Amino acid sequence: MANIVEIHVPLTPAPALPEGAYLFPWIDQIEDFLADLEDGAAVEIYDDGEEHGDVYIFFITGESEAALLAVASRVATLDGVPVGAFAMVTDEEAPQFGMGRRVDLPVP
Question: Which domain of life is it from (predicted)?
């Protein structure tokens, strides 16, 4: 059974955007970052990200929980990513997302 880490990022608009600009450019930035990691890495995108309430959730999977949390920490510290991101450590058996052990990001 594969580990899954959900990266929950507050849906906070990026500051100082020009009028009419996309409010959450950091979503694309995170998706690009995660896609770039997939090439030869022990971490993969598990599923497409999605908005859920007041957060946007990214899903990654891999064998090592430590590697997954390291990637989640890197996501949380990317320029422009809103403060307050956290991870949920879970697996494929979880009945829905948001179930599991919460880990504040970045991890030390």
Answer: Bacteria
